[in-house]
Amino acid sequence: MTSKKGILIIGADLQGLQAALTLAHLGRNVTLIDKNIEIAALPENWSDKGKRWNQYLYTQVLYHPLIELLTQTEMTQLKEAGGEVKAGLIQGPMWVSPDLCVDCGKCLVSCPVEFSNGYKPLFELSGPSTMTIDKRKIAPCRAACPIGMNPQGYIALIAQGRFEEAYELIWATNPLPGICGRVCHHPCETACRRQEIDEPVAICALKRFAVDEVGKKKKKPGTCDTSSPEGPRVAVIGSGPAGLTAAYDLARAGFCPTIIEAEKKPGGLLLHGIAPYRLPREIIKKEIAQILDPGVDLRLNSPVNSYKDIEKLKAEGFRAILLATGATKDLRMQIKGEDLKGIYGCVSFLKDLWKGKKIKSPGRVVVIGGGNAAIEAARASVRLGAKSVTIIYRRTRKEMPADPHEIDQALEEGVKLRPLTIPVEFEGRGDGLAQVKCIKMKLGDVDASGRPRPIPVDGSDFFINADTAIVSIGQKADISYGVGGDLKLNQRGAIEVEADGQTNIFGVYASGDVVSGPSTVVEAMASGRRAARTIIYALKPDTVPDGEEEPEFSSLEYDPILKDTPTKKRRAPFHRKISERVKDKNEVIGSFTMKDAINEASRCLQCGVCSECLRCEAACDLNAISHDRTAIQRTLHFSKVIFSDKVQTPSKIESSRMIRIERFGKKDSWAKAVVAGRAAAVKALAGTTPVTVEPTFHKRLGDGELKIGIFICSCNGTLNENDRLDEMISPLVDISGVAHVEVLVSACHPEKGRRIEKLISEKGLNGALIASCTCCHLAFACESCNDQRIRLKHRLFRESGYDPKDIALINIKETCLLPFKEDDKTAIDQSMRMIRSGLWQLKDSKKLSKGSEEPCSQAIILGATEAGISAAIGLKEKYASVIIVENLKVEKSIEEELSKFGIDLIRPVKPVRLDGRRGKFTLILEKGDSLLSKEKKKSPKLSLQKKGKRLQNLDIKIFDESPRYKKIQAGIIILGRNEFKNIPYKRDSFATGLHAGGSRAFGSLETGIPGVYMASWSQVKKLSDQTTGMSAAGEALENVSDKTGPFGSFVDNLVAYADPELCRGCGKCADICPEGAAILEEITRGAGLSWIEQGLCTGCGNCISECPTGAISLPEAEQWYFEKVINAFFE
Amino acid sequence: MNQNNILSEIIEKFQIFHCVECGKCTGACPLAQVDRDFSPRLVAKYVIEEGIDSEYVKEKAWTCLTCGLCNERCPIGISFTEFIRAIRPLFITEDFKGHLSHGGALQGLMRMQAAPDLNQNRIDWITGEHKISSQGEILYFTGCLTYLETFFSEMNLELKKIASDTVKILNSIGVEPVVLPDERCCGHDLIWIGDEISFHKLRSLNIESFKKAGVKTIITSCGECSYTLKNLYGQPEEDFPFEVMHISEYLQKIGFSAGKELSEIATYQDPCRLGRFMGVYDAPRQLLGSIMELREMPHFRAGAWCCGNSAWLHCDRYSKQMQVERLMEAKGTKSDLIVTACPKCQVHLTCAMNDVNLMQDLNMKIRDISSVIAESIE
Q: What is the pLDDT of residues A798-850, one digit of tens each?
């Protein structure tokens, strides 16, 4: 049974490409996969010829209608069942789509990442000719950030002085950037790999710099617009970092959030927990205003005190309620004397203070606790004029959870630290505090928090005199609103939620410290973000992709840190003098200077290589780049599988459906690879049927008065700097016959380029000139074709079906615009000349040569050798009649095998003369005596002239008359044994050896006579005779298949023709033609005429350059045309 | 004056009215032997009857070989060839029927040489063994040898060697000729395709150089150069105070005696310009005869057949056929080599030897007379 299913080829290396092309030429659907992105690049040690052939095959494969090329694709599973092969394929994420990229290089310019050796994460491939991105594992700083900021990206931008873009990138993930830039506990810096060399990069300060620098004159970026007129209403209770972030995210997703705040001012703990000298109030004000305006409502002075309040909100129309009320209730020490005057909870102390409550000098202050809040209280006390400030902590400084930087600053300001101490009793004088009784501690084993457990030392009691004590041992959530409802709490007294923020009550969510207990600003933001996402997904399921589906990151490792990387000191921003800063509430730390910021940013190691700053996405107007693309998994069914890539070849191939391309030698064996690739393709043919493909019929645009459209490609705008291309429009419109002139974004782009087709039909144009990088109508007649050029030609001539005669293609990019990049005037002047010349392609209808002969559908193999038999079996694919002729004895078993395949055997006969040409050979055989006696005829043997001597026409007549000789016709001939090379041919004896040096000599088994192939290649020991035989058959089949039809060139009628009036009959065209299409026929002695067989000509033009008299011409390359083109150029 | 009147004047000047329609011209014409459509007699007839509008004349004015064989046979003595040269400028019109071989590249090369500021590398064949001078009475005019050798490099013709050999011969008799590095094309092919403007530019550039070098006698190694300088540059005579001679004429005049005898048998191809146009038949034959056996082809001296082309016009299957016939004649003499005195004969005949069907039958050595003589005095 035969199958119409396609054939899978694994490995698009040279042999794989050749196998794919051979199969496709023979009408088989092919899926060609390769695990690499770049497939046209070859090892350096390959010869230029091999590389050229690889490039040729690649461009042919690229847009072949029967070949699907999947790069970056691996096979995950392979099963044979039910007469077919099931293959699981996974194609890696194609961040740069080769189908959309025009290779303009804009993205390269936009990328901020550049290593000291010049390497950039974006680089150009040689085939496909597109950009590619080097992505590694996600950078450690980014991975560490709870809200997923992209420090590598904005640092790279800062290093290039691109502060606005850095600002935009920061805003993409962080709605409170100025706040985070000051008070974030920066886990990114903890993760930074730079500390393996010296110190981590000052990421937090760099973020602050960018926000301060750009924020001075600019509001939040337009991309962060939050205004949404309608959408589900959500109440966010609490305006701390969690609530603000959630509200912002909701608004960006098109929701209408309302923040409900109990206090007079929004900000929550940002306002009440953090000192203004660390976080100036105007920063909080500004950033909250940016979140609010527009799109987020704010209600102040609206405490939510009971569960009834929540129900009221629901009744008001809020479809979801997010509780983000924070942890604001100070924990108590639970020791004696805690109710004495002068003892405060830390948060309530600070809250009163920052609200502006007058607090008189606190005297001697003891602060209990080691967190940031404790430090905050201690430094606030200094500024209130305390006589002394002592922090008591039960472990050592090393274990203090506060930011070390903050501790340093506090100590600088005169705060004392008493580690390994714990208060056991507050002792008062009257109702006021007098002293704190403490005991000393020592460190024990590691406890559940990962820190050593503090153990009291017996009998170590001592007293610290104090007027004020601030207890800062933690806070808990104030959830009075939960009372009276069913809101479920956990053991710690916080709201119990599922990981995504959903409480046990439908429509009520919770996030931030109210869930987690006291944490940090950025963690609260992250929690708010997660809850917002949950709400968005619950209310608008289609807006958020499946929660599981995070963008795909690369798993490639970072580059190792080089040992010789020079160390560079971490820069610190300006700090105010201690004596000054303790006197007021103004900010202690300044922003980086521009110079320091750039220097500091340049310390970044760019761990992820690509930072995913997305500047390239923004630069590409063609949607070619998307960092969101994910891998695609597919399961496909095939009739056969060919393995080319040795890595993926199973060690044993047992099934007949799986074919391994025969292994060949080591280096530089491209010719052998081509032979082996063809052979594998022929092997795979058995049991498959070709698909029928509708040929492309070119439609002529209307005749009559010329209405030409001129389309100038700006290559995604890169060629149109200073709008220089636009200058050409008005002079070109003035040329008679020109109806429309336009500068295109891109001619080859599958969508943008469609304007050409659109305007042709809208304006009724009957000719189009496309001035781009595409130079001619042919497919890989030279080495200039690349993905983009082929793509344009494929679209115009195959998909849209225009007649190539109606479309003129002019390459102004490489001839004018790039060479004169710096000189606009010359570039435009030259382009104008080129376009004026090019118009001649459309100004006259072209002549065509006519007539074509059907090639003979019989194939002859000389010699029943292994190679010959193998070739014969292969040829049965296309040839109804395959004949093997042999003069030696043939074994019975072989004869039987041949008849099984339907191959005829004639023996004993000896080939004595060959005539004709490809598609139409005549072979004269001399019958052996045994055959002749069977036929009961007798005839004398002719004495033939010596080899190499010209045989007169007379001789052929004798062959006709004598029964000893038999004449058979053949379209192609395959030589099964090398000795047959000596059969006299009309020109000369065969050239010995293979067809070497000709333009088609890439692993070709064709001899010097087109249409005659060798089935064995004696020089190559590595390949079996079976392989070379199959390959010869493959090459022959490929060459007779319709090369100029839908599978081959884009141009089916631009073939050469010979003017008999001018032909000299010298035969130079016949000598040079690689296809055997130029044929010289003798008329009388010394005079002949050449003609071109249309079906064989590919329009390469070799004959034109060789013809001394100018008799041969291509419709595209006629003498008059060139004269006019040159005149138009110099007009 | 309109074109028809100019034509009438030319017809008058060359006495075309005197044609007796005997047809001897057509009978002798080698082109008419292979192209039955071509007839000098009909050209004469139609040019009188239809004048400038005659389609026949428009076409045949360009296909004529200008070999001059018809002139020899005309009982009235009409110079048909000179007539063709005179009318060709009239037929360079929009409706140009001529066909320049090699895409007109060779004529282009010649026109380029008419540019006054031109840097040429035309004497790279001069080595230490050549003695030349920059001033002197005798000048050797090399012509287009350098250009042709480069242009037809795939034929492996030793054309520059002709120049080298000619200087060697002159050196052997004590002459150190002037060889001009900025010599220009003589303009033969341009005037024969009707481009008189370029021809006159070349002529005055060349004459200026000759005068600067103080030249009295000009020696050429090419029949066309000889004819052009002597007959076409020399009018009016007062402008051209030089004596022009082909190397064979010069050697004969000074009584040159060649050196050793060569064992090869040669046959001599008369170039049209040197033979019929200038009547130099004996000098080359005497020189060659003194060093080797010389055999004549069936058509020789004034009846010699042309090499098949002139002025790089209309190289077609008729040219090829004529060349093949001529080569068969040469083969028929059973000589070892063809000797000629014009590099273009070498180019044309060598090209025709590359015949797919007759390859072995046509292959024959072909050399210039200067090279043969130089070999004998080595």
A: 888 888 878 989 999 999 999 998 888 999 999 999 998 888 878 765 444 34
Partner-chain contact B315 A1070, CB within 8 Å: no
| pLDDT at A584 (0 to 100) | 81
- A751-770 pLDDT per residue, tens: 999 999 999 999 999 899 99
Whether residue A992 has pLDDT greater than 70 = no
CATH superfamily placement of domain A331-476? FAD/NAD(P)-binding domain (3.50.50.60)
Task: Please list every residue in chain A whose beta carbon sits closer than 8 Å to the beta carbon of residue B321.
Answer: 1084-1087
Query: Domain A226-328+478-539's class?
Result: alpha beta
pLDDT digits (tens, 9 = 90+) for A328-380: 888 888 898 888 888 999 988 988 888 888 777 788 999 999 988 899 899 98
Beta strands in A943-1073 (DSSP E): 965-970, 972-975, 1012-1014, 1057-1058
Are A886 and A907 contacting, i.e. CB atoms less than 8 angstroms apart? yes
Answer whether CATH 3.40.50 is correct for domain B101-253. Answer: yes
B residues 321..360 contacting A (CB < 8 A):
321, 323-325, 328, 351-352, 354-360
Which CATH entry fits the domain spanning A7-92+631-685: 1.10.760.10, 3.30.930.10, 3.40.50.150, 3.50.50.60? 3.50.50.60
pTM score, two decimals? 0.74
User: A708-843 in CATH: which number?
Assistant: 3.40.50
Identify residue A620 by its one-letter amino acid code. Answer: C
* CATH (residue range A858-1040): 3.50.50.60
What CATH code would you report for A1057-1114? 3.30.70.20
A1086–B351: do the CB atoms touch at under 8 Å?
no
Cα(B240)–Cα(A521) distance, integer angstroms? 106
Confidence of residue A986 (pLDDT cuts 50, 70, 90): low
B316–A contact, CB cutoff 8 A: yes
Cα–Cα distance for residue pair B10/B5, rounded to 1 Å: 9
Provide, rounded to the nearest whole percent, the portion of chain A with pLDDT above 70. 88
